[in-house]
Amino acid sequence: MINDITLGQYFPGDSVIHRADPRMKLIIAFIMIGAVFAASSLISFAFLALVVVLLIFISKISPLVVLKGMKPVLFILFFTAFIQVFLTRTGTLIAEWWIFKIYSDGLMMAFKMMCRIALLVASTSLLLSYTTSPIALTDGIEGLLSPLKKLGLNTHDFAMMMSIAMRFIPTIIEETDKIMSAQKARGTDFSSGGLIKRAKAMIPIFVPLLASEIRRADELSCAMICRCYRGGEGRTKLKELKITSNDVILLLVCIGILALVITANILTTHFGLPI
Amino acid sequence: MPLSLENVSYIYGERTPFEHRALNDLNLTFKDGMITGLMGHTGSGKSTAAQMLNGLLCPTKGRVLLDGCDINESKKSRYEAKFKVGLVFQYPEYQLFKESVWEDIAYGPRNMKLSEDEVKKRVNEAAEFVGLTRQMLGKSPFELSGGQKRRAAIAGIIAMKPRFLVLDEPAAGLDPAGRDDILSQICQYKNSENSSVIIISHSMEDMAKYCDEIAVMDDGALCMYGTPDDVFSQSKRLKNAGLNVPQITELMEKLYNCGIDVSANVYTVEDAAEQLIKLYGKV
Ligand SMILES: Nc1ncnc2c1ncn2[C@@H]1O[C@H](COP(=O)(O)OP(=O)(O)O)[C@@H](O)[C@H]1O
Ligand SMILES: [Mg+2]
Known about the structure:
The complex is a heterodimer. By secondary structure, chain A is mostly helical. Chain A is built from eleven helices and two strands; from the N terminus they run H-H-H-H-H-E-E-H-H-H-H-H-H. In chain B, strands 6-7-8-3-9-10 form a six-stranded mixed β-sheet, with helices on both faces. In chain B, strands 2-1-4-5 form a four-stranded antiparallel β-sheet, with helices on one face. The termini of chain B are far apart. Chains A and B meet through helix 8 and helix 10 of A and helix 2, strand 6 and helix 3 of B. The complex binds adenosine-5'-diphosphate (ADP) and magnesium ion.
């Protein structure tokens, strides 16, 4: 079950998206988020969905993986839709039951909200987590944060902490899995009983996990010191990030997408086009 | 009442880009009252097979039979299999979590819902088997040395008195004296409790010394099965499976090939010494 976590997992590949500069990808992801939030008409959602399909196609990530990545946000998806459906009181009344009233506007808003969240998760994971290695991602973050260095902020330490944290996510998942199996072999039952019983069944996992993570952190810091790590001062990179024409084209395409979405909005709100 | 794997296949991460077939139509029966050794090179699927035996992993295809019943038949049978087949993981010392060693060993028996008297009896017995002293039992598991932690973890499974005790590389990373201690204590446990033991290891020497039967795995399938004599006399097949014969056997084979009057089928240092001493008398 724990192996099913695909949100935040990197799938190596060699597509245009995989090769793009991580700094650019972060900026593009932000623009995409902006476009998803700006979208208000059905046509713009359809257009953004098309963009996501194109992203899947270009990056060669299996659509199944993208769908599986939705699993963790499914609850939020339906919860917000539910709230929208039952709390909106405008438009025409469609159905009524006890204190619940369903209006046409509510349904429409719920649908749009679901589209928005799904598109948000799909586009950011396709642009960032699935196609960018954790190391590249932290390099990108460090690059984008580097202007803050002038303000006296230690961006290198921050990026290093992030990259270590990300590097160890799979290790910790694996380790949790192993400890869970070992405790199951001693009869721990994780899947039955009430809330308190289940919470108690977690103790045999968390204690050994914490102990071993502390030990690991200790060993890692020791290994880093042994290899003369001394922070970001004067440190050079093996792979310098470089913006290529490829990246600029991606950025322009993305800005184009945002512009189209905003145009669609203006057309629908100001000129009342029914789209 | 044997424990057997019947046409078992297992695929990790099925239908993901990380799909990996770890077991490939494995057929293997562990007989009662024996110490069976499970050997194979790293990645041959030994640990995966071990986790099949007590229902931790469910075969993608095939069945796991205990007393002729499929242990994955229901959720209940799968849960109960954990008490009938005790599995000691590789590096089990990282699973200890209770405030004292005694409490940690008692964790399994308590999950079996035994009476407090029975739990007490079993914990003390198990601790004795693995050679933990009374004083150590009162300590926190985090205060013990590596070898002592390993013993405590093994005791935690022994205290559940499983009919089959499966140990995944119980001696890995221990010093020679520690290895011999732990393995001979396991033998002693098997004899006094009349249970069956399955030891996973790739130390040919240990296997030759302690096992009644040996199964060799290669790429997720069974490749050889038999007594240590059967298995170690086929050095070529062993080498093809990424293993080797015990060092002493290699030495004796070389001597034999040089025309010296010794048997090439010798698997323990003691037997070899005996032969060489006999030979020395003749010269
Ligand atoms: N949790 C896992 N996820 C994916 N692959 C795994 C996992 N555990 C083991 N494997 C793979 O399955 C194969 C068999 O592993 P394992 O049973 O641990 O072998 P052994 O114990 O004989 O060294 C290996 O190739 C290993 O990489
Ligand atoms: Mg193993």
